[in-house]
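User: Structure with 6-O-phosphono-beta-D-fructofuranose, tokens only please.
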Amino acid sequence: MRVGILTGGGDCPGLNAVIRAAVRKGEHTYGDDFVGFRDGWKGVLEGLTMPLDVEACRGILPRGGTILGSSRTNPFKIDGGPARCLATLESLGIDALIAIGGEDTLGVANKLGDEGARVVGVPKTIDNDLSATEVTFGFNTAVQICVDAIDRLHTTAESHDRVIVCEVMGRHAGWIAVHAGIAGGAAAVLVPEVPFDIDEICANLVLRHSRGHFASVVVVAEGATPKAGTLVTASGEVDAFGHARLGGIGNLLATEVERRTGFETRATILGHVQRGGTPTAFDRVLATRFGVAAIDCVHDGAFGHMVALQSTHIVRVPLGAAVAELKTVDPGLLEVAELFHF
Ligand code: F6P
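Assistant:
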């Protein structure tokens, strides 16, 4: 078969491992040919391709990013976009397409599938917010990067008796924040799922410091919001999928904590460092298993499906179900984090 592969949305450690695995099994086991689409759906829309075979995948397993490039192009927001995508697939003789992405990229895959494209999805995102899979590759790496940073923030915070607010990614789910907060020993973890109360946070910090702790690290998810009417936050631009560009809550929080408690407070926004660099062993293994499972799906004709991890097994779920709902943080996990809040 002639199989196209694309990577869409924000990049994520492990993307190259998926590509490598699908190509390796496709070429060796099934005798497939591959076409790499550049920059996510933009490549399909505009017919931007690159050669893709086992040779092209040598050495990419430990490399972050994606050799195919990525973008947040949404063909359904472009006049005639879906038809152009279908025409590209037809003209290049693509029998099947493997789309590696998050909610947005897979949402397009699902809709294009309804219009006749033969697509298989692979879930990726550092945010871990896709339902139907217990975990996405990239998440483990992002959490580890945050924990390494928090460990470093602790020692400098202790030297200076400071509060440090550490802002992490995750969009509208607090998975990165809560995992990094628990593993990093945060004095507070603020997530989008539960609007925060600035008075309560400050009271906890004062209590903690009155007990002899003079340094605290507060982890805040970029999508965390204050309880209605308690703090004024800025609203940002939106992308082609209508998502707000998040970031900046950490600075606001640091200013407020310092103003209200008198403790010297600094903010660190980890930003894209969380998405860069080499994937952890866990993510390499998961990504490799997903890549192998995706090419198997193609040969089983399981189009309109996404591969997923459930109870340690790789399974197939309908794309529609996979993108229907955001997976938010388990309240039980938040309770664990809260035990260490003061
Ligand atoms: O979805 C992954 C993610 O890293 C989010 O955590 C973050 O909000 C967003 O992408 C950032 O997007 P961009 O790279 O376009 O700034």
